[in-house]
Amino acid sequence: MLNLQEGDTFVSGAKAQALVSRAIKLGQTLRFQPATAKIASLVQLVVLALGIWAIAAENPVWWQGILAAIGTFVISVAVVWIVATVGRDRKAYWANMSHAGVVVVHPASGELCLCEALAHGVAFSPIDKYESDNIVFIPSSKGMNTSDLGRFRDFVYSVVEAKTRYGFVMFASLFIYCVTAGIAFMPTLVLYKSGTSICSGFACDALTGPYRWTHEAIFQMPANMWADLADKLDLSW
Prior knowledge:
Layout: E1 9-12, H1 19-32, H2 34-58, H3 62-87, E2 99-105, E3 112-118, E4 121-125, E5 135-138, H4 146-161, H5 167-181, H6 199-207, H7 222-233
Antiparallel strand pairs: 1-2, 1-5, 2-3, 3-4
């Protein structure tokens, strides 16, 4: 195991099978596998086109047309998920992580601990919370000086104290991310509400300063964070 230092980060989720975890992995697959994304977008557009054609041919009353359009959209989303599930590279890092956090000194015990955004809010967790084969630590502290670490620590403590949480808007944003990820020619839609954060967004915000990201911190998924740090720290999966 890495000789952990304050300022390090981590990614996990190889064993996570909950709905949100699976959605994040599939969304990352579509972002990191362009060929799979193109197939998913093509199939999704075909489903949507056929649905619109069928609705127009039937010429239903307005409320039936709305229900049919919603049903068509739901089916198209399911098709995208199926394509991503079948086509994903299961050994790739983007298919094996759905969560992220940071390593910090606990303000009460003075011991190293994890700090992560959970459903109930950003909180401290034991350093050994995750099994060794379900977590990968990243030596991000190497790129930080004393001033960076001080700012990092202050930020983490302030977020915990503020009881920052995911919130409904952030969960909705994750859903929209996965839906739009399959439509390659469209920009990804991101919803955000002040006082909320996703796990990797929180970690990237904590490291902003010594590190710069390919996307805004609130849009950084765990795989994006890993890719950026791996490039800067010369790491391999």
